[in-house]
Amino acid sequence: MTASLLLIGLVTAATFLLGVYGVRIARTTSDFFVATRAVGPGWNASAIAGEYLSAASFLGIAGLVMKQGAAAMWYPFGYAAGYFILLLFVAAPLRRFGAYTLPDFAEGRFRSRGMRRLAAVNVLLIGWFYLLPQMKGAGITLELILGTPYWVGVVVVGSIVTLAVALGGMKGITYVQAFHYWVKLFAISVPATLLLALVGGGPADPFGDALPTFAEVTAVEVPRDLTLNVGESITVVVDGVARRWPEGNVDVAAGTELLFPAGGAVPTAAPAEPLDGVSWTVPIEDSDRGLGLLGAISLTIATVLGTMGLPHILVRFYTNRDAASARRTAVATLVLVGGFYFFPWTYAVIGRMWSPELYVRGETELVVLALPALLGGSLGTWMSAIVAAGAFSAFLSTSSGLLISVAGALSHDLYAELVRPEAGTARRVAYFRASAVIGGAVAIGLGMLVRPFDINVLVGWAFAIAASAFCPLLLLGLWWRRLTRNGAAAGMAVGGLSATTAILITMISPRTGVLGALLSQPAIVTVPLAFAVMIGISWRGRPNRHADRILLMMHAPDEVKPLMGVGNT
User: Fold this and answer.
1) Domains of the chain, residue spans
2) C-alpha span between 429 and 31 (Å, rounded)
3) What is the pLDDT of residue 33?
4) Residue 182 predicted with pLDDT over 60
5) Around 114, how many Cα atoms within 13 Å sit in the side-chain half-sphere?
6) Are the CB atoms for 409 and 123 separated by under 8 Å?
7) Quick one: the chain helix, strand, coil %, rounded to 5?
8) Judging by beta carbons within 10 Å of its beta carbon (0-12, 13-18, 19+), is residue 187 exposed, middle or buried?
9) Strand 234-238 relative to strand 257-260: parallel, antiparallel, unpaired?
10) Given this model, what pLDDT does residue 27 score?
11) N or C: fewer beta carbons within 10 Å in the chain?
12) Main-chain phi, psi angles of 238, to 5 degrees
């Protein structure tokens, strides 16, 4: 615990020092929102990767793959592939447009304050939704390594991020996030390599036709009231009394002490089901127990197209010097993100063999934090500390980028532009700092409520909303001159509202079958619906009279714009 506290303290101190450095050079509105558009591709790519690789990437993917098997690998595939689509269709023209935020683009493209308001509302919705898994990750991480209550981690990380953003804005956070990418890559790769080399294979083939088993006699304290799915009959010592559990469901109260025999098949906390090795390696789940093919397609649509709709990622492309730098940034980011995603599956496979108690406790999301202890001795202690510091870094970096987007929407897109348009730079910076405090407080409050949900599922929902609201707006707004203000507004509203409604229904009252799959992963319906509404309404209307000039500005090479009399808005 001492080593973990030391390294977490060092990461936090470095975050504050870089934030303080940002304060020294962040004075103007441009500094706070787009870092004076002077960030190089390599530094910017590190910063994007740093804020993109969130709690879902550092903790959630390994935990979800451990629980669901290859069916969960659609998440990292979509997260990485989304940058390829972003590179092809969005990065360069969006940078040429020139703006501070996504709502700036919406207003400038259609010359409409109403579009700014609508886009800002969607930014807030996506930003706060995406902050929830970061808060949950912070809560469970400090709970594991320090033994603190869940809410302590939420408050600590939320407060640190709020202070860092309020002080430094985008210019300060750029340095923070670039630093955090390399911290996270080191923290996940070095322990994974050592685990492969020193721990290696387990007592049974993880890919065979048997359920996972306990390698040795294993004691488990149940953290909360659980229903365990027992895949094979097993004798368990329950609070000192031996009992035979038949195949089926067994209810276990919080605080119960369980003792499992070596070689016994591992029960799994509901709603997950025990999977034999063959089922665990199938990339498409059986629809009776999971999302099935429909859900996998919908999830892929959400993660691939949702990447281009994430406000905290898109604003990064405004910080590049020019369109060519934006393209190079996208390529470099794809390489950095893809390299990181090589490692989570390692933890999932080793965890299935050596930490089956996580199945029983329903805490597979802790597998990355739990496994380094298998190395034993001081090596295990320090590797555990390094992983804990990397997880803390993930919460800080991603939360920082998200909170900048939320604060920007509140201060720049809503309050300053719509209520106080006459405000000068000093007042706008003050609005930004106040909005950061408000946005952080809301994230902390909501973060207390989401512990029952998987981190990656929460992130997938944020991506679904982003894909439904902003992906159609960007693709059509950047490439189709006939897109009208009414069509864009209606499509953005319908897409964002339908995706959010489906997700809220799933959170409050989960459904099963095809309907449940569509509600829990709605992008397969809501994204085409948003496109259809935008195109249908626009086709019947007339495009903005400035549309041709705006599209020329976004697609003409920077070198020829002065000759055409075209400039950035």
Assistant:
1) 2-201+281-451, 218-273
2) 10
3) 46
4) yes
5) 9
6) yes
7) 70, 5, 25
8) buried
9) antiparallel
10) 47
11) N
12) -110, 110
What are 565's two structure tokens?
């009399």
pLDDT in tens, 195-240: 988 886 666 677 777 888 898 899 999 988 999 999 999 999 999 9
Residues 6+ positions from 496 with CB-CB distance below 8 Å: 121, 122, 125, 465, 468, 469, 530
202 HSE (CA, 13 A, CB side): 25
Provide the terminal-to-terminal Cα distance of the chain, rounded to the nearest Å: 53
Q: Give the Cβ contact number of residue 6 at 10 Å.
A: 13
Q: How many CB atoms lie within 10 A of CB 270?
A: 14
Q: How far apart are CA 160 and CA 398, in angstroms?
A: 12
- From 133, 173, 168, select the one nearest 154 (Cα to Cα): 133
Q: Collapsing DSSP states into helix, strand and coil, what is residue 314?
A: helix
Q: What is the pLDDT of residues 272-306, one digit of tens each?
A: 888 888 888 887 765 544 557 787 888 889 989 99
Cα(157)–Cα(214) distance, rounded to whole angstroms?
A: 35
Give 366-392 pLDDT, tens digit per residue: 999 999 999 988 999 999 999 988 988
Q: By percentage, how much of the chain surpasses pLDDT 90? A: 30
Chain center to CA of 172: 21
Mean pLDDT, to the nearest integer, of 161-189?
Answer: 78
CATH superfamily to which 2-201+281-451 belongs: Hydantoin permease (1.10.4160.10)
Residue 358 has pLDDT above 80, yes or no: yes
DSSP string, 198-246: HT-S-SS-TTSSS--B-SS-EEEE--S-EEEEESS-EEEEETTEEEEEP
* Residue type (1 letter), 247: E
The span from the CA of 15 to the CA of 178, in Å, is: 11
| pTM exceeding the 0.85 threshold for the entire prediction | no
H/E segment holding residue 27: none
Q: Please give the Cα distance from 232 to 407 (Å, whole number).
A: 52
Return the structure tokens found at 296: 């996998």
